[in-house]
């Protein structure tokens, strides 16, 4: 839990907004590009879908793991085409055999302008081996129709349209020659929130291998899998829980079950932030944060397989097996900017403030006052740097084409009290487009009003799309001043406490209507980053995978 909102016993005078002698807020005049009009309604944040499709499926659906995409990876062509390291256990010989090699993934997207649906064609090509004798080549083409729904969610329906596989493992040959021997359906629901895309679905498949290059002996693999995860800027997680049954059928004989397998496949991406001091004193750079990104992919399996004789016929002996595979990408790193912040040396929030400057959420280090209150517009402007949009799958990135028109586009403000000439107009407009805030052209945003704890927490939780975690009809938090929480913030405050974004002070108070200093804002954003990068990923891995 993070002590984000501990009540300050003393407050410095603020530069633009300072504490008056009686504790009231005194506004110091500042130049503005628009007049701030006070709105008597609460700061309600209505979420709308972000309208993006995040990356999924880098490990395929065959019960294997890939190294996944990294920021430094080179695209193999102008389309979305990448080559990954890949590993997969092969069970048809009666003994698990680990095959390793390359997976090449290609994606092409087409859009139907009338129905607004999208059709994604994904081709997976595998080239695997174990030593010099065991080899597997496989080529699969999936066609996915992505249909938007009225509530902002998207449904993916996937069919396998082409399939070939040739495996030479353990002295035996296993062949899938066409789509007639491999049936698969996959359906996934995507729920896009301003900062996170959640997905969940199911996969059902049947693979019928011919044993040998001729003849009528077959081995069939029946699979069912649940598929769930999320994508966002600070981390991603994808989990597959797979159950397989292997059935052997010899010519003229009844089918015999020769194996049962359970697999847990996890594919995760994480960004981490670490501060490095600059040891030489005679340098203008005192130190700064480095952001690293790496993929960690793990597969665990348990299997009970019939021991096969020399003719590959099953015996009555059942043998249990267990094992795991792991692939990690080499981390990529990005150095964040590092301004001189001598004036906050020793401040309790010094590291978090430095982080916000590193992310360029804070600017103008020389004039920075950690005890200055933050306005609603400033909060939104900085928050978009901390909570970027969900990274797009390269296949879904819009293709730009030269415009033949020279007509000027008229820019209008979505809020009656937000001028298009404001320096932060673009941030406020982008926040509205993403669904971080709401407006209809006539409503007011109150950009220069000081933001409160309740308003800030409402924004943070709504970007996660987790308000449904709060009980109905009236959520009750554990804070002693729960009754002072505005009605619109009851659910977000409950959720924030539940997932560890906030906690009260030593006496159990949260002070929901207090204004927020920039120092407290930095603490809030660090907690938000920790949740997005660590806590949510841990939630998925610990509850879905024996991680």
Automatic annotation (TrEMBL):
Domain SLH, residue spans: 411-474, 476-539
Region (Disordered): 1-26, 54-77
Signal sequence segment: none
Pfam families: SLH
Skewed-composition ranges (Polar residues): 67-77
Keywords associated with the record: Repeat
Record protein name field: S-layer protein
Species whose genome carries this gene: Ruminiclostridium hungatei
